[in-house]
From TrEMBL:
UniProt cross-references to Gene3D superfamilies, sorted A to Z: HUPs
Domain Cytidyltransferase-like: 1-111
Coiled-coil region(s): none
Family matches, as CDD domains: NMNAT (cd02165)
A GO molecular-function descriptor: nicotinate-nucleotide adenylyltransferase activity
Pfam families, per database record: CTP_transf_like
EC number(s) on file: 2.7.7.18
Protein name: Putative nicotinate-nucleotide adenylyltransferase
The UniProt record lists the keyword Transferase: yes
Protein's organism: bioreactor metagenome
One GO BP annotation of this record: NAD+ biosynthetic process
Pathway: Cofactor biosynthesis; NAD(+) biosynthesis
Annotated keywords: ATP-binding, NAD, Nucleotide-binding, Nucleotidyltransferase, Pyridine nucleotide biosynthesis, Transferase
Amino acid sequence: MVNLAIASNDYFFSSLIEIDRKGNTYTIDTLKQLKTVYLDSEIYFIVGYDTIETIHTWKDYELLPEYTRFVVVSRTTQSAGNLINLTEDFLDKVDFFETPVIDISSTEIRQNIYNNKSITYMVDNQVERYIYKHNLYRAR
């Protein structure tokens, strides 16, 4: 479904690196591997504000900016003051963007499907077709 959702955007791609890796998988390992494949490309890691607030708990988090630039998307104006655990060097590789609030959740999408309600405009058209074709998220 990810591939369907990003098919029309040449700037996105999906990867099976974490699925194919044996054992525990950590973001730092994935980014290192991606960087060896895409040497001359800048990798952007899109996360929500809630993720960047807790990223200091991730394995080797202080090394992450060596391999990626973070794009932090928040739904409201939030202060970078909550990021006291991150160094200035780390924050230099973080870009903040505020987006309009779109009141959609994956739980709501699954509930709508289960209850035979529309998910039009909640997911990409191709993803919607795939979900219905494969009878996903319906009662068994």
